[in-house]
Amino acid sequence: MEGFINVVTTFSAWLWGIPLIAVLLFSGLYMTFKLGFFQFRHPLYIFKQTFGSVTKKPKGKGTVTPFQALTSALSSTIGAANIVGVPAAIMFGGPGAVFWMWVIALVGMSLKFSESALAVHYREKNEKGEYVGGPMYYMTKGLGMKWLGIWFSFALMLELIPSVMVQGNSVANTVNESFGVPVLWTGIIIAVLIGIIVFGGIKRIGQVTQVVVPFMALIYIGGALVILFMNLGALPEFFTLIFSNAFSPAPVIGGFAGAALVDVIRWGFARGLYSNEAGLGTAPMAHSAATTDHPVRQAFWAVSGIVVDTLIICTATAFVVLSSGVWTDEGAMENSSALTTIAFAEYFGEFGSILVTVSLVFFVFSTILVVIFYGAKQAEFLFGLKASYAIQAVYLIAIVFGAVGAAELIWNFLDIMLAAILLPNILAILLLSNKVKELKTEFFTSDKYYLKDIGKTKGK
Question: I need a surface site. Which of 107, 325, 388, 409 has the fewest CB within 10 A?
């Protein structure tokens, strides 16, 4: 059995190295070119249409508001990767990995834009009258490849069982270490709380996430901002460290063992993609329920999600870890997952470690909440609405099993299962790239959308 696990682990590490990073990078660059570098040409307009319009009543049809759809999608992407994944990237790839995290975020915007626009365009109403959509719908309706949609759905539905177990394990151990609460109790309490919310459907999830996500992000970013203002003088050094190490091997410094250039790029890309889920096909399921008058308008919200998740929260973590110097301490390599907690504690003492613990609990709780919703949508697509309730019950039981440590054996399979979801979705985006371009062109050239927003019409 141990030999089999080693084979799986080795294959998984290889797959999520150069092969998948190349697939995501080239497909992201292809869509960026195809869509005319929209994320670089219209950043202010995108901001105005998203965070700048939060207080306005959304136009069009949908089940939840655009902001609720974004916070639901962010619940899934803002998680342990932002707190634990960033120091791991720094320890194994050096400070330069942060630069490549930014690069893949900017390139990944075109993939997230594409999948979300397609999800809204091909969405439909379910038996409860809620809008549902995602890769399985655009594979079926857009490509006429229902078998691919079934593969995607089935793989995602199964992948989320170990995923939920791992998240349950993470939060139970964190609470146990910080507050001494037995892991079983934590597992049961989380399962009950999440059950109450997810059985209420996307409307209730949207109502909860629109409060929880801004709150948890503000607590964490707020702590990082206090550290930034305490340390404004470290800002030039922070950027110097990142840019000087981005294009060369990272040198050995203290407890940091150094890294080859290929590792600098690989770790930056891998952690960035893990964090923002661009191209994975999960976020479009949340965005497909949004009230909007055009698929492209909601796709802008998906792009803004990458800004919040990777460019703001991951960068905040990187600043705290690098400016505190904990990444060069002896033993930092072996303890990379705790570096953010140690760094906050350097600045705030015990309060700092509590702040990170509370943030992690909130981040993981909200992640579990939304991934269970994603899994339920797969069961609904495959077997109908009743099946979605059954799979939700399976996920809730999995949280408890995961909390008491039953997930270890399955952890190694997680990355391979993720690849089984990612590859069909990337294929679908590329095959439907002309449709995405058509939707984008329609939005930017029509009197009803972009031209109207900026006060220009074709007649003027």
Answer: 409
- d(C-alpha 202, C-alpha 373), whole Å: 8
CA distances to 47, 74, 420, 441 from 370, rounded to whole Å, are 24, 9, 20, 32
For residue range 32-79, what is the model confidence (pLDDT) as tens digits?
Answer: 999 999 999 999 999 999 999 888 888 899 989 999 999 888 888 887
Residue with tokens 């919310």: 197
Q: Which amino acid, one-letter code, is at 354?
A: I
Q: Spelled out in words, what is the top-level CATH class assigned to the domain 2-453? A: mainly alpha
Considering the entire predicted model, what is its pTM? 0.89
Q: Pick the closest to residue 108 from 313, 274, 292, 296 (CA basis).
A: 274
CA distance 239 to 102: 12
For residues 78 and 411, give the distance between their C-alpha atoms in angstroms, rounded to a whole number.
20
* pLDDT recorded at residue 454: 84
Domain spans, the chain: 2-453
**Tokens of residue 198, six digits:** 């997810």
Both tokens of residue 141? 């309706």
Number of H helices, E strands in the chain: 24, 2
Amino acid in position 437: K
Which of left, alpha, beta for 112 (phi over 0: left; psi -120 to 50: alpha)? Answer: alpha
